[in-house]
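We emphasize that the prediction below concerns an isolated chain of 241 residues; any contacts that depend on oligomerization or on bound cofactors are therefore not represented. The input was used exactly as deposited, without trimming of termini.
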Amino acid sequence: LSYDILNHTRLKVFSLERSVILRERQKRLLERFEREGRWKHVDKPIEADAYLLNEVLDSFPSNRFVFRNGRWWEVFYDGKKGFTLLPSDGPTHYRGEVEEGFTYDEGVGVEDFLRGILEKTDRMLLFDYGYEEDEFLTLAPRGTLQGYRGHRILHDTDAIREGVDITHFVNFTRVRKVAESLGFEVKIYMDQTNFLLKYGLLEVFESLGEEDKGRLFPGMRTLLMLFKNHRVMYLVRGQNL
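Result of the prediction step, given as a token string:
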């Protein structure tokens, strides 16, 4: 994504990346732009005109909580003993409704990370998988933990294995509350399909040559049809943008 932004605009981009392996890959891919002085890594949030978080929050570690027998339990995993339940006060931030068997996966450190970013900018564009807080009970009553390996999705605790990219869904209600506490307002909030259609995906596609259209059509169809729970939120502070 950074490559495309740098290749098609004159913007200057900074990447905040914690993974050593990904930092090395990014450095190789973006070497030309680094030489031009338009890209580099940073180790912590810096003052910036805008931040773009593309599937960042769903990659945070998560704790799993289950509501059973009238109370919350936290799920612990031991590689030798497997999964166990221990009494818990429940999720730190979730305030939605619950029922017997309801499971909630809560990102660890997400809200502190968001505050650190939002204190350094007045604009943030966020793309991620997630729901509103009052949707979890209906749309994901057994939790949102899942994993990816080789383009295959592993659901629930099947995702807890070596070599799997583990993820969970973002609570967009909490994102909004954190942002509003720092003076931001939500300018855009919609699913990815409507966002892409509203902001010109079809117009861009129609401007392409026939060869490019044929090459890109399968990917465009996937973006528009298969990601209904992938959402876009644009947050602004003190600006009419």
